[in-house]
Protein: Ribosomal silencing factor RsfS
Organism: Nitrosospira multiformis
Amino acid sequence: MTLAKLIKTVVAALDEIKARDVEVLDVKKLTALFDRMIIASGDSTRQTRAIANNVVEKVKAAGGMVYGVEGEDNGEWILVDLGDVLVHVMQTAVRAHYNLEELWAQAARINKISENSSGKKPAARPRAAEEGETAPATPARTRKARVTRAKTNPDDER
């Protein structure tokens, strides 16, 4: 399995179980032990265990190797060793305490790309009205404006 495919598989597995604050770090120039480090957060021990288990299952299903998993008993910080990629799944408080991002601050951050992403640009946001312009009316605004006008029109009371 290529490194890019492994990272995509891991990030997709993390997203599937709603891992938060996913960071992918390129640590190839900083250590010879692994090339990438992925850090993610979970809200509870149950969620961190579920996230780590999902990563293991998805990597194995994609044909990758899982060399070890540490910390499942405690669930506060689970380490998944995938060889070239090391995955840290931590509870938010534990992550804030150990602050791995600061420890590995020299590492380059990589944009995470999940398998679910289509590669298309996100839909453009509606243009905001500039000063002096009126914003285009949405159906809800139009209905509300009509109701308001109907109630305040004195000719309607006759």
